[in-house]
Model the fold of this input.
Amino acid sequence: MSNHIFWLSSYPKSGNTIVRLIIAALFFSKDGVVNLDLIKYISNFENTSNLNFIKYKNNNDFNNLDKLEILSKYLILSQSKKNLNIKEDFRFFKTHSANMEIFNNCFTKEENIRGYIYIVRDPRDVIISWSHYSNTSIAESIKFITNKDACINWINNKNSLLDKKIIPQVFLSKWDTHVNSWIYKFKKKPNLILKYEDIIERKKETILKIINFLEENYKIRFINIENKLNNIIKTTTIKNLQKEEKNKLKEQNSSNPFFRIGKSKQWKNILTNEQNGLICEKFRETMESFDYI
Done:
């Protein structure tokens, strides 16, 4: 067992990028000052360059990776140390994949996992954020988040050998299925479940929770921690991240700003009573478990 992957997982638009930046600042900066250049230290697993090895194993499959049935055959193999080019003991990877079987093929396996952090957000606010990010209506966003077959695209990397017309899909499923696929699986592995609302509204407590989790489970000791903590808090405000994004980086696959408002309970002023009722009905059990209703 190599246990070489530490997953940072979430449903899209749930705060994964902010957690990614916090952890990158803890590990890869001297002072904890967050800038978007740090994002490179925690790469996105669903990056098409991670599929290059398939071309040499089965070229026909490589040219059909836009089919989930084909792609799913290689998900575990794509997570090997060799295919991910991992030289260190373990590495952080962001993922939006549901942690479940697709065409009888698992997304990941226990032997690969060093630990995981899962970030959950009120699905009603996910609807608002996804609507803005994907240039879709609220109704379309609701349809997306409640679709058991929902997918998004892998990120196309310039080092990928894949034809740009072939677009692999990240399998999400419904919001509650996605959440439960992570929080109830591999529970023997060190894991930390974070709420987006706490990241935004109780940032210091949340960062300390992350630090304590990493120190207790992996015998890590962060240096200059008080200074890092203060700087991370100051430089991960939505205003600062918006400025960084404007100057340096636009997340792929959208012409709209990635960092938009960063507030909870936006749904109260946007969703109709009928839309709110629909989401609460469909996701009641999972929403209640996180005190969203």
Summary: Strands lie at 5-10, 43-44, 91-95, 101-102, 105-106, 113-120, 151-153, 169-171, 191-195. DSSP finds 14 helices and nine strands in the chain. The mean pLDDT is 93. The chain has one domain: 5-289.
